[in-house]
Amino acid sequence: EAGVAQSPRYKIIEKRQSVAFWCNPISGHATLYWYQQILGQGPKLLIQFQNNGVVDDSQLPKDRFSAERLKGVDSTLKIQPAKLEDSAVYLCASSSLEWDSYNEQFFGPGTRLTVL
Amino acid sequence: GQNIDQPTEMTATEGAIVQINCTYQTSGFNGLFWYQQHAGEAPTFLSYNVLDGLEEKGRFSSFLSRSKGYSYLLLKELQMKDSASYLCAVRDSNYQLIWGAGTKLIIKP
User: Fold this and answer.
1) A43 touching B, CB under 8 A?
2) A29-51: pLDDT as tens digits
3) B-interface mutation test, from A34, A54, A56, A107, most B Cβ less than 10 A away
4) Helix/strand/coil (H, E, C) string of chain A?
5) Which of A27, A64, B75, B79 is most buried by a 10 A CB count?
6) Which of A40, A104, A108 sits opposite B42 (nearest CB)?
């Protein structure tokens, strides 16, 4: 079974520029998550989709961050304009909705963003 | 508010046993997860507890006490490759995962 795919793996931009990340979840997984992980901290949920609907985006800085999952499969996360404090690893994860399963989250390799 | 507490860093010796504790205060409880994260890599699932007691999986075991809001991850026969961060996460009443900051485990020869 193919895992969660993310691209790019690394990105370096200057502050005030824009950047986009892409994620393709495990086939059949209805739920997709975007996390921000700053070095030495646990993942912070930015947004959660179930199919193509938003379940939780309470911690998404909506003045600069946006995300979409138009066809309920892959997703993009955009930052515009970027700030220095956005330097972090952006993790995408997916999980199934099976009632007899742990529904654990499977993570992609992440995108390491550096804002200069 | 919701809170997950774990030690920031622990050191252990190759071949020994180490216990990583996690205490939580969350809005409801629908299971507790342990994930392993090697430096520069994504978290990978280790264990899941939803009922009180011990779950054993090879060299790794995880324990849960819901009444105490407490879990631990027990690693036996430590190997150098076990050097990683270990993340505790609790699924709350809204089925959202609340993550701890992680415990960095350093294994010495």
Assistant:
1) yes
2) 999 999 999 988 999 999 999 98
3) A107
4) CCCCEEECCEEEECCCCCEEEEEECCCCCCEEEEEEECCCCCCEEEEEEECCEEEECCCCCCCCEEEECCCCCCEEEEECCCCHHHCEEEEEEEECCCCCCCCCCEECCCEEEEEC
5) B75
6) A108
